[in-house]
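G., before I forget:
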Amino acid sequence: MSIKEPHNAGRSDSRILYGAGMSWSLILPWLGLLVVGFAYPVFKLLSGSFFDDGFTLVHYQRAVTEPLYTAVLLRTLRIALIVTVCALLVGYPIAYAISKLVRPWSMVVAACVLIPFWTSILVRSYAWIVLLQRKGLINTLLIDLGVTSEPLRLLYTEFAVILAMTHVLLPFLILPVYGALKTIPADLPMAAYNLGATPIKVFWKVVFPLSLPGVFAGCLITFILALGFYITPALVGGPNSLMMATLIGQQTTQVLNWPFAGALATILLITTVVLAVMFRTLLAKNRGFSSGI
Amino acid sequence: MRTSIAAKILFASFIALALFLMVLPTLIVFPMSVGTSNYLEFPPKGFTLDWFVAYFGDEEWMGATWFSLKVACATTLAATAIGTMASIALVRGRLPGKSLIYALTLSPMIIPHIVIAVALYLFFAPLRLTGNFYGFLIAHTLLAVPFVVLTVSAALQRFDPMLELAAQSCGANSIQTFYHVMLPGIVPGVAAGAVFAFLTSFDEATVAFFISGLEGKTITRKMFEDIDFNLTPIIAAVSTVIVGASLLLMTAVHFLQNRQRG
């Protein structure tokens, strides 16, 4: 998924064909929908968290002091971090492989990345339930290999949440890393080889540092998405792996404590927006790098 | 030299294992959907099409499927029209604060869906828009337009504005220029955007979970309920249908985008 700004933003050149009146009427339906279906409801949810017979911060106080809720906040951060690291450890080598392989092998690997990307999140959650249950494929395999004699309890644990979330988010890491690896001019590693560097040295001293913008961008988007994940943790996780999004959902539909749900949503939203701004800055740097060479 | 060959083999097996684990969850739903066993079992035994028959014969599943299809089709039309218009304004128009509008346009992709879901639920509930076709149309169009803007504005940037200028100086008005010059040039981008819009709506689970009602319920909400409460192999049959359809659609997009580039 690439986020590009129109190249002509703010420039007055031959690309500008429509005057202000025409432009506004073309974009008005979208701006209207953004305000009515997005900005207003989100604003209402967030502003509701500050009021309870007058202005108050009691809901925020509750979110960051009650042990039950701080545990959820910390767990969400921890799981998102672990998922990001796992996705990087598995995803980087895959992205590297796609950038190194020649057709048709690169296409095969890319297809293996894109097929799960295009598979419904519900289908994948269901598949992990099938694989991780007591008599599932993974337990059968572990018993056959002699790792364990009794089937392990894998489903409805934090392990299941981390595994399933890493699986869902891997493509979001692989695609930017692959993008960064592809922009590295082939002569740079070549020059290093000619100067007598070993393959490992070439990778760590030349290729890896040059791919860092893609790594940061991929990690950030993975982390952002992991923070707000709802469906997968709700299905494969248990009460001991409750995450932020599930808590917000519970507070809204079961507990009916909307101001508190709003406070949790505000915390999640602000964290996300701060990270997203960092993401954009990194992306801008990334672009500068690729055009600067 | 030997160590480097060993390292290569090790690296290749790691990649192979990782890729296998990546596609495994998608692939197992196919055998699961034709197994005869009533409960979860892998590898499944026997062969039956009973679960597909059960899916296509079940009123509630069919109701949810049709509801999802209706919402997705309407969303595709609305999002493609709104998104294409917005893209033209953003790429070819004179607007102040374009980069701010662009950031706002993409924000529904970045803001956690749980926040949008809860906000829309609280907004829709008093208006009786939960479980309602129009409620879903608003929510899903909002989520789909960013994808349309991404693909259509990319197509517009590759399309030579001189052609539009030529048409206009030959006396064509804006609408004629759009239909006869610009649209034929960007149609693969618009079509790709339309497919993304359809999939965004049909696949969307988080917002649909919150704004569904007892009557108006999407297939994703129905699947969530069934996975959570009674895991029957019908889910595998439904999954097979969905995976087959979305792989087909995405392959179509892939060719559309290649055609645009070529």
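Residues 57-185+215-292 of chain A form a domain with the MetI-like fold fold (CATH 1.10.3720.10). Chain A is about 75% helix and 0% strand.

More on Monday.
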